[in-house]
Design brief:
2 strands, single chain, 54% helix, mainly alpha
């Protein structure tokens, strides 16, 4: 779904590496029958499919993209650990702090002002 920050991360990595790609739209909330059928129950976004192989995590997707095309590198030689550590920190600590700010009542009211209440409740769960 377009507002997924992790899907945007995957799109940016694909663009950085100048790889061609296609996307499909999935719902931001369950049910996601096409996605769960493809992934065997995994329901998060994004998912990368290369042939019959499925990659279900942006860290794993990044490594697969580096294997697909070495340059420009997402994990530059000699900096692999630093790049992976920074990405892990941003995906966990930074993301969780950002989410806590976005889901404050004032922010939610502003962000979801034009969205049906039922969607906001489902999205929040």
């Amino acid at each position: 779904y377009p507002t997924s920050p992790f899907a945007e991360k995957a799109r940016l990595m694909l663009g950085f590496k100048q790889l061609s790609w296609r996307s499909v739209m999935i719902p931001p909330v369950m049910p996601k029958p096409d996605l769960t059928a493809l992934t065997g129950g995994y329901r998060r976004t994004p998912v990368l499919q290369v042939g019959a192989d499925i990659y279900c995590d942006t860290a794993l997707i990044a490594r697969r993209l580096d294997a697909e095309k070495a340059t420009p590198a997402l994990f530059p030689e000699g900096q692999e650990f630093n790049a992976a550590t920074l990405a892990q920190w941003a995906d966990s600590v930074l993301f969780l702090n950002a989410v806590s700010l976005v889901f404050q009542p004032e922010s939610m009211a502003l962000r979801f002002a034009q969205v049906p209440k039922e969607f906001v409740q489902a999205f929040s769960k």
